[in-house]
Amino acid sequence: MTRNSSPPSQVAVCWDGVVATVTVTGEVDCTTAPALASRLREVGAAHPERLVLDLDGLFFTDVASARALDSACKALGKQCPVILRASPRPSAARRSSAAPN
Fold first, then answer.
1. Which pTM does this prediction carry?
2. Is 35 among the domain residues?
């Protein structure tokens, strides 16, 4: 799937007792990152004991969204542990392994 054909970002929140899992799929860029950061703040306001941020379904992210996620996770980390779940896409793993050292 190419960048232009990636689905727009989707954010789902699932609660299992006091643990919140926020699953992000599609792509997050400078236009969608503020909404994601806002959603993370909303979840944090509910005071979970732990927050799992699942980025396995993320196809694309840019520097602006990475900064927004970092900022939101740092703020949430003051309230509760934040567990980041992410696996690189096979194409990204191939590109990084092919990069010169």
1. 0.76
2. yes
